[in-house]
Known about the structure:
Elements: E1 7-10, H1 30-42, E2 50-51, H2 59-63, H3 68-75, H4 83-90, H5 102-121, E3 127-130, H6 152-164, E4 169-173, H7 180-185, E5 192-199, E6 226-231, H8 238-256, E7 260-265, H9 282-292, E8 300-304, H10 310-324, H11 340-353, H12 409-425, E9 433-439, H13 445-448, E10 456-457, H14 467-483, E11 487-494, H15 497-511, E12 517-521, H16 528-534, E13 540-547, E14 566-571, H17 577-595, E15 599-604, H18 612-622, E16 630-635, H19 641-655, H20 671-684
Parallel strand pairs: 1-2, 1-3, 3-8, 4-5, 4-7, 5-6, 7-8, 9-10, 9-11, 11-16, 12-13, 12-15, 13-14, 15-16
Helix pairs in contact: 1-10, 5-6, 8-9, 8-11, 8-17, 9-10, 14-15, 17-18, 17-20, 18-19
Bound molecules: N-(4-aminobutyl)acetamide (X5A) and zinc ion (ZN).
Zinc ion binds at residues 175-177, 266, 268, 305-306.
Amino acid sequence: LTKKMSTGIIYDNRMVEHKCLWDLNYNEKPERFTSILQRCEELQLLNRCLHLKPRAATKEELLMVHTPEMISILKNTAGFSDEGALEQLSSKYDFLYIHPSTYDLSLLAAGSTVELVSNILDGKIKNGMAVIRPPGHHAMKSEYCGYCFYNNVAIAAQYALETQGLKRILIVDWDIHHGQATQQMFYDDPRVLYFSIHGYQNGAFWPHLRESDYHNIGRGAGLGYNINVPMNEIKMGNSDYMAIFHELLLPIAYEFNPELVIVSAGYDAALGCPEGEMEVTPACYSHFTNSLMGLANGRLAVVLEGGYCLKSLSEGAALTLRNLLGDPVPLIQNLDAPKRSAQQAIMSVMYVLRRHWNCLQHLEEFNVQEIKDPMNLPENKFWPRIEFVGSDEKPETYATRDICPAQDPKVAAELDAQLDALIASTCLDVQPNRVGFTANPAEPIVAQLEIIQRCHMIQTERSQTSIAEETSGFFRNLIGSILDGKCRSGIAIVDKSSENLIKTLKYAVDSRGTKNVMFIDMRIHPDCEIQRSFQEDVRILCASLYSGLALDDVEFVGLNDSKRYIVNIGLQPNCGDAEIFSSFFRVLLPIAYQFGPQLIVIAADSSGNISAEGFGQIIHLLTSIAGGRLSVTFENSLVINSSLSRIKSCVQALLGEPIGMPGEIHHRLDATSVCTIRTVNKAHNPYWNALQF
Ligand code: X5A
Ligand code: ZN
């Protein structure tokens, strides 16, 4: 049996020492660090992690991305007790304070990030989180900036490239500020895909740089490997961020196929953060995290950057860690259409990158009217500073107090109450068994699947009457254990599933009162009977995603009041993972998120053109929804090798173990499939407003 790999955590208690001596209310304050650890402790997450030993970065490591002056200037301040001199030096930089401990702690922050990444690459841990300060993503080659001294994430990425020979690293920067420094460091490098979602406000949002806009997509060999999603409005929330993940980040990430994913994890886009003024809920960070965990064999390093509302920061960070540990992803509700300006940002990014990424090619016939011209922006008072990097326009001194406008106390109290309610309603139950398993007892396939031993057997009485009856008992017990909270998810290998699926779905909604269930038929011949049984039932969404003979019109969306609850994605028999992934990201996943089911039931078999890995990845991505309550039924009529590997990959996904990557998603999409996806998308977008693209 393979050993279950753990989640690492790295931090150093000395990191509370770094503080602003002349402005104790400065946003980047020690309580950020303590509140995160305290929340992780409360949720009993720390004792489940492998604790890595923090260490200082070496000079060689720093010099991989910084100049020698970046070391010496700060080194000269170490232990220095003249507060006035520290304040004066700090004023030379854009948003910065230096404390006598800053030099040592910046080295520790950078070194700990390298340590986290190297432990992941050595296979000592599966994934992990660095709870560190000072943060890093604004620290440029030779300029401290934005509370940052050394670029922790960039150093760790460069370390992975240079000493471990990695060829593809994905850096996701979900901090509300653009990590301009990280962008600069890898701008020419196709080995590092930098993807940042940040506030922009047409340049009015700090750091006020033109280089943060969407048209900056890399240079030379690195062209296409720098992606900025700038947001020009405040109050962006879960719907906007999930759209960015589904429409851009995930398709591109899967096509890029990284060997390592590093997150510049700021929590300043979270609800309540006065810096970001955005509205991402803490639970949404679990979704971000989970959706990246299928990549790179699960090698994911989450590194703290910003986040200045202690409540949403600590909750968001704790839920991120909890997700790394494999706990279920909390539900996020009330997803809506992304805001118009978020849609514009997404479309602008698609437009500039469409020639670089196959997954964006469906946008050839783009409505260019929708795209803002990055060179022709409205006036704003920051433009003189906008070419800040490498220009002489830099001001002599900067403010040394934090000038983030004080929040209206009434608004702050409301936000606080809203956060308390959200935190209280986040379901924290962890089921005693991760994956339930059931099969016809004599089923030979079970003996061939070692991985099944890691599942929880669900005992079922053998039926004396018929196989159909027996199967129906299996299903009921499996779904029952999931709904009872005994198992998080389940898998069944059975005969004669079709007629029993209808009974099972009815059992879930009628007998168990489940509010809504999503059924996904991924078999080569989806069953018309199932769809017909529920075509007028708003509680059950019946989707099919298959590559075989057309089941029904792909434009059919259901009848009467339940229009929208039938989703048919019938792809060409010659399609493969690329087309299936595209339909999944562009249609099925956004609909699934918006539907927000309490339970997902999937019917699968061994046919169709999806690879075992592709299938596992889709199952993994679906575990974000419905709190992970997902059951997969495999038809065993065709017990062949391809079904063995598909079942294995599926169980791996349900167990939270690394799943491989589908091989074939790097080619242009089959034109007919693109057409089908577009048709289904068009048929459904009057009903599901998440489908805007
Ligand atoms: C790491 C980070 C932000 C600096 C903001 C200055 N820096 N207004 O979030
Ligand atoms: Zn930030």
